[in-house]
Amino acid sequence: MAEVIRMPLLSDTMTEGKIVKWNKNVGDTVKSDDVLADVETDKATMEVVGYADGTLLYVGIKEGEAAKINEIIAIVGKPGEDIQGYLAAENTASTPAAASAAPSATPTAAVSQTPVVTPEQLGVTVIRMPLLSDTMTSGKIVQWNKKVGDAVKSDDNLADVETDKATMEVVGYTDGTLLHIGVPDGESAKINDVIAIIGKAGTDITGLLVSLQSNGATPAAAATVSAPATVAASTPAAAPTNESTDGRLKASPLAKIFAKDKGIDISKVIGSGDGGRIIKKDVDDFKSAPVAAPKMLVSGQEGYTDTQLTSMRKTIARRLGESMFTAPHFYLTMEICMDNAIMVRAQMNEVSPTKISFQDMLIKASALALKKHPAVNSSWMGDFIRTYDHVHVGSAIALPEGLIVPVLKFADQKSLPQIALESKELYDKARNKKIQPQDFTGNTFTISNLGMMDIDEFTAIINPPDSCILAVGKIKEVVIRKGEGFTTTQMMKVTMSCDHRSVDGAVGASFLQTLKKYMEKPVIMLV
Known about the structure:
The chain is α+β, with helices and mostly antiparallel strands. The protein has four domains: 1-81, CATH 2.40.50.100; 112-232, CATH 2.40.50.100; 250-287, Irregular (Dihydrolipoamide Transferase), CATH 4.10.320; 312-526, Chloramphenicol Acetyltransferase, CATH 3.30.559.10. The protein has eleven helices and 26 strands. The strands form seven sheets. A six-stranded mixed β-sheet has the order 17-26-25-24-20-23. A four-stranded antiparallel β-sheet has the order 1-8-6-3, covered by helices on one side. A four-stranded antiparallel β-sheet has the order 5-4-2-7, with no helix packed on it. Helix 9 (358-372) crosses helix 10 and helix 9 packs across helix 11. The model is unreliable at 92-114 and 219-240 (pLDDT under 50).
């Protein structure tokens, strides 16, 4: 069966995407990880991957033209496969494929005689699984925050979706009534699969579901989930303020994780989110009654707990495993005296509108050093090395689900207060499940800092597609000889992991020397 490639949702405010360039032509053989086209959104130019093997049978949008979200831009399938049914369902103005066949020809099995029903005819909006990360192929519905029959607004969070990077929110961007849910809680959907339909209450969408299913655009089991909007309206509402009318607890995945870790009964937490939904802050602020000490286990009793891997954790394992065993790593360690940095930071924070951290200073220093040593600001591309003109610094942070790397774009061009403000906003978005793909993609260099966790020094695995990653330890007071006596100074160790295919030892060492100069004399970063 052919795979329909639609314009994906590549940013939270995107309504359409402009095809900058097609990287494949009709008739070309394509693989699931091939970049079919470069698409310009309202935020950036990004790549569209088909996630399907086969032959490119159809290109629906020319270079330089734009397509709306979920509009068909390409079809991949077997050579010679009939795709007219897909196109007929998309365009109501076009005649069915059978009508364009030779006169008096027998209708072929490739085109169903079921009347084609489109969302436009019914005045409804089809919500599809959006592309929420650059490596995402499917998303798992952690929980639906709305049920069939509920009125929804354009900015409502319809569902929490677990991707390979994080658990994120899916917003419908339309007002109406939730008429259909295509994927139940706990199940996954591929990119562009139909996950919901929103429209006017009472709209009969049976014909639309048949049309979508006949084109492979929605999971086969979806039809059993939908129900008329009037059914849900008659359901009695008798539940606490933090439960939905069907008795299901309304809480974000992150809030549930934190409540479990802290041993808090989340059903006793009062939610402050939309509709009484419990968020992480509510769990943090919750004051529970004293709990009796747990009973001690019998001496010698064995046991273990198996934790299912999240999509994010699986991707971290795969990508870093590929990096460690594909890229030949070597490591360079250097000590940096932080006395001046401590003093200058304190002075800057007396006037800075946003508190500047040592991590912010490292981001700025690294960005300036990368401009002086562009070979470090590069990627190994297999048969060539790509050296970037821009500097996008990733700053790794740990979440309960795993590691994520928010990216500060054009860090070399920003002041320290700007970096401090933007990094804080990115970290908050990551922790509160608000981070978007453009916020954690495009890095050309990465910093991983464990100094705040009392780690002296460590080595980090390179974060693809970067050539290097900087591992930062804690600032530590040490005794040094000075003149005839001894004194103390504040030192910090950094270790840079380098991909020897694209960065040589001398190049990495020169970069660290420049970084050391900026951190030991931070005033020159301000000039």
